């Protein structure tokens, strides 16, 4: 399976942004234990800070993924470049495979296509964050050769303790 990654249009960005903010806020609520209001505030603050100019935000690349054979829209990818300890690295902020396209290998194809494009830019490392409860994504990344570099852990104590 081969996907083409092309620049996201402003209209696609507007549709993607609402979903991405909501999904991130829900993950922050569930995985990090924020209240719903605090999670929404964090999500809005993070997205606004990283994407101040929307699809044209400096240092950020917003991409749409299409099946190369059929032209079917299969997902979106938000990628940026960061300085990490004096090294320029790629960073995957968000990957979304549309629900109708899930389970068909598009996540793997999107990441493989991205890796080739990043290498062509002269960048030899990609980092990303994934919430601990996202086992499907974690398994995909591991199968692609990504390794866990840090793990946060938490335990909710009952009020009696």
Structural class: alpha+beta
**Adjacency order of strands in the biggest sheet:** 1-2-3-4-5
Categorize the overall geometry: globular
Supply Rg: 17 Å
The H/E string reads EHHEEEHEH
Low-confidence stretches: none
Sheet having the most strands = 5 strands, mixed
User: What is the total tally of β strands?
Assistant: 5
Mean pLDDT across the residues is: 94
Strand content: 15-25%
Helical proportion, percent range: 25-40%
Question: What's the helix count?
Answer: 4
Distance between the termini: 52 Å
In terms of topology, how is this protein built?
Blueprint: E1 3-7, H1 10-32, H2 36-50, E2 60-67, E3 73-84, E4 87-97, H3 106-120, E5 126-128, H4 135-143
Parallel strand pairs: 4-5
Antiparallel strand pairs: 1-2, 2-3, 3-4
Describe the structure.
The protein is of the alpha+beta class and 161 residues long. Helix content is 39%, strand content 24%. The protein is built from four helices and five strands. A five-stranded mixed sheet has the order 1-2-3-4-5, with helices on both faces. A hairpin with a 2-residue loop joins β3 and β4. The longest helix has 23 residues, at 10-32. The radius of gyration is 17 Å and the shape is globular. It starts with a strand and ends in an 18-residue tail after the last helix.
